[in-house]
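Hi support team,

I'm filing this because I wasn't sure whether my run with iron/sulfur cluster finished correctly. The job status page said complete, but I'd like someone to confirm that the output block is well-formed before I use it downstream. Pasting the exact inputs I used:
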Amino acid sequence: MAVTDDILEKSIDPTVHQMLARARELGLETVWDRYEKMLPECGFGELGVCCRNCNMGPCRISPFEDQGPQRGICGATADIIVARNLIRMIAGGAAAHSDHGRDLAHTLLLTAEGKGGGYEIKDEAKLATLAKEYGIATENRTKEEIALDLAKAVYAEFGRQEGFVQFTRRAPAKRVAQWQKMGIDPRGIDREIVEIMHRTHIGVDNDPVNLILQGLKASIADGWGGSMIATEISDVLFGTPTPVRSVANLGVLKADEVNIVAHGHEPVLSEMILAAAADPELVAKAKSLGAKGINVVGMCCTGNEIIMRHGIPLAGNFLQQELAVITGAVEAMIVDVQCIMPSLGSLCECFHTRFISTSYKAKFPGAIHIQFNEEKALDIAKQIVKVAVENYPRRVQDKVCIPDEKTECMVGFSTEAVIKALGGTLDPLLEAIKSGAVHGIAGVVGCNNPKIKHDHGHVALVRELIKNNVLVVTTGCNAIACAKVGLMLPEAAADAGEGLRGVCQALGVPPVLHMGSCVDISRILATCAAVANALGVDISDLPVAGAAPEWMSEKAVSIGAYVVSSGIFTVLGTVPPVLGGPVVTDVLTRGAEDVVGAVFAVETDPVKGAALMIAHIDKKRAALGI
Ligand code: NFS
Ligand code: SF4
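And here is everything the job wrote out:
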């Protein structure tokens, strides 16, 4: 297996180097090969100036005034087309996160009604807190009675026609007032997403700024609505994460056990897969077939969910999903929804791996479909695990090649866990920020993207931040990248600046805190809101900044929009398809300051991206007089 220079250029992760060399040896194609075949990518698409919203088109606007059409057939300008395309991306992302939240609400409802096939209410304290927020009575009532009312209340948020989404009221009063003033305080989550689809239909909203405002409104419904519901209800059902140690990277696959990769997003499935994999009968069956046991590992955000709550090892992030299969050691790749490459089907066919889809919403070529059903959750999960176990004897030993690398990490920093680590109040953190020991806080999140050297954007940016005493909170594929390089160990404080190092050492925490999956960015919002409220200021006044160094998904577009709408300056490490619209670009990078008190910046160099964030934090500190 030859690790050539071009392979070294693709990732900073040695497991990726090894598996890409292996893929070449076996003649297998990966996402990187397909990316290269796609080059050059479409220039109109990159600028965001192509439109297929009606069948008079497709239309595309020439970036050069004298070299082609400057308007679509209906008369739409580049800015109109760019704005419509951008907010349709927000609609897609907000829909994905929010449908995830809805599935959690549904599971809570079934559980409260006694119909949840194996689920229980694990965090009663959180249930009580949420009930209070919703004005639901708790005295002399069973947890099921309270949960039933709560499930109905959060379910109703999706289709709410008027009024506001309850969790948005966690934001500081000034922030809510600003949203109201700008007309972007969202009503029901579904309503705002539908309104994007309506407004972007041919001949409806043709004012780029008005379009973007609706995009921001829907994104707020995602961050402070759908995503926050997903997080909070997951905590009620599966427990609020607390710090736990585990390991990350492809080396978590085991040569002598049945390996199950749980990939996708919703803990509704993965929690039950874990329960099923612990079933004594299935373990005995695995042993009778020659395996030493059943090894469940996570991938992508489902991996984040189960490592946070159970310390289940994490196999990797988005760009490693194909590589897990190429190890030849995976008995089953079990998926639900989101960020699952359709290439997995044909790839699994080159190995013994069973590719099992479980959601009627997400079917794939080459997959076996076993429909998951919350009412029979544990039974179906056992059926799925059984397929994996029975597949073990089909593993071809000659094809097995598992990288050694795996790195220890400490994860599980929910807002509650952070406050607990601080001794019960935010005060020590506020003091550390005021004294300058902690210069500021950065939320670094988002995907992988083959346009950028895998994990390099994430890790280089995070290292630069902690070196400059900026505490990093992270989710998603960034969190996985940080875990794999050891930044999530308390010992990593040695890589931090002096002030941050001291704080981390005193508290025994890493300088990079794993807050969960992408819907758990809502935890970052809630933490920022709590800090702002404690200081009596708005979120936009805080020395905080956000970044998505390797983003690619529509969900990331929605995230970026709601983070900026929440008042947090955000750096994007891959270029969004908006540059063909000068008005839109100006609104996002400048004009948004007057609307929501924050803007986007685009910087593909991670070290320079960190510098932009630090400069922003400096500015906010100066304004606060600290
Ligand atoms: Ni977020 Fe998670 Fe990863 Fe990006 Fe996909 S797994 S929900 S979208 S790729 S961070
Ligand atoms: Fe072209 Fe306008 Fe139709 Fe879009 S909506 S495809 S710009 S005619």
